[in-house]
Amino acid sequence: MLHIALDHDLSLSIHERRHAQEIFALIDANREHLGTWFDWPAATQAPEDLSGFIEGSLARFARGEGFDGGLRQNGNLIGGLAYHHVNRAVGRTEIGYWLAESAQGQGLMTRAVRGFLRYLFEEEGFSKIDIRCHTENDRSAAIPKRLGFVHEGTARNVDLLRGKPIDHHVFGLRIEEWRAHNEAQEATA
Question: How many domains does the chain fold into?
Fold first, then answer.
């Protein structure tokens, strides 16, 4: 299936049925950490609980509407990276991500998202990419800031987390901003 090289040691592979046990093991090992920001870890109590999620991702992929994938470092699963809310007519999509607690603080997700942006802009042909994250998740918000995204605002009461409404930062990056940011980074390197 689909496999994308994101960086020298990072890759992204679409989730397949055969990955259910591996995904579950990583979620289970990081249940408390992930539960700070997401409700889905509490609903994932066995590998079988992932079947609808994986099937839905494969169906979206078949329709050209994105997918959920496993982020791997040197072949080892360390998190997830996805694109969804695809609007091909305007060339827009949204990406989301999560990372095992032990993999945080090393710049891995920033590198992974940078590689994924390259894929989405150059291979998939998108012209705008959004990232949304919980307003209290400073680590998650730091990633789009590092990569040249524009903070477009705060969406209020967009979801529930443990039954309480939460707000999201909304970040956006157009292809021309991405190119300019990359050129500036190369000029200072």
Answer: 1
- Tokens for 20? 């259910």
Q: Tell me, what CATH number does 55's domain have? A: 3.40.630.30
Q: From residue 166, give the alpha-carbon distance in Å to each of 8, 84, 96, 144, 170.
A: 36, 20, 16, 19, 13
Task: Write phi, then psi, for 165 (nearest 5 degrees).
Answer: -65, 140
DSSP 3-state percent helix, strand, coil across the chain (nearest 5): 40, 35, 25
Q: Check whether 189 has a pLDDT greater than 80.
A: no
Phi, psi of 89 (to 5 degrees): -60, -40
Q: Can you name the residues that pair with 160 across neighbouring β-strands?
A: 165
Residue 69 belongs to domain spanning: 3-188
- Contact between residue 7 and residue 115 where contact means Cβ atoms under 8 Å apart: yes
d(CA 60, CA 175) in angstroms, rounded, equals: 23
The confidence score (pLDDT) of residue 110 equals 97
| Residue 25 backbone phi and psi in degrees, to 5 | -60, -40
* Cα–Cα distance measured from residue 94 to residue 125, given in angstroms and rounded to the nearest whole number: 13
* pTM of the predicted protein model: 0.94
Q: From the CB of residue 51, how many other CB atoms can be counted at a distance below 10 Å?
A: 12
